[in-house]
Amino acid sequence: MPAYENPNSLHDPKVAQVLAALYEASRQDDEIVGRALAGVAGRAAPPSLEESVELVAEALLPVQPRVGELLYLLVRSLRPTHVVEFGTSFGISLIHLAAGVRDNGFGSVVGSELSASKVVQARKNLASVGLADVVEIREGDARETLASVPGPIDLILLDGWKDLCLPVLELLEPKMHPGTVVLADNLSMLPQEYLDRVRTGGDYVSVDLPVGEGIELSTRITAAP
Fold first, then answer.
1. Which of 23, 24, 48, 40 is CA-nearest to residue 164?
2. Is the pLDDT of residue 155 over 80?
3. Closest CA to 66 of 187, 215, 216, 206
């Protein structure tokens, strides 16, 4: 696993340029999401998960830059062997996670994404910055594709459809260990059931952080079931 010349790969000009271009492209997300909402307004039934994914297939929906920096910091600090991400989109968060893994000199990241077109784009973005060799992106429903990820899992990012955060967390729990760290992005959008699980369930200690649009940062404190 060759390392970049800069000890912080996020400062590598190639990585920084790609991230800047992706964040610039994400400025259109509000317009894309607005069109999607207008398109389903008045429908008798809400769109299915698959339909919803396709409606926003062109939206990058990235983690905020400070959240990306936090992801990189945690990877460098925790030095995880196995990292798992739910909700890859165009791969911005994966770039931050993979950069930390690369700079540590070991480990791997498994991402997951339901949109086939986003998987293609994310893989291109990871390859363009030379980080594809430390990342695997699994296409399909994360409740199925992440069932076979290797463990023990050291770090988890939950940034996909918020209604699925708790099911995905519960899917991964048997492969966690005391000390596994879980980040759930977009705090205000997280279902109360998820927050109750990590805040009052007794298996985690958890705190909300005012980073980006809010993060719930949790650490597993009990052994896997």
1. 48
2. yes
3. 215
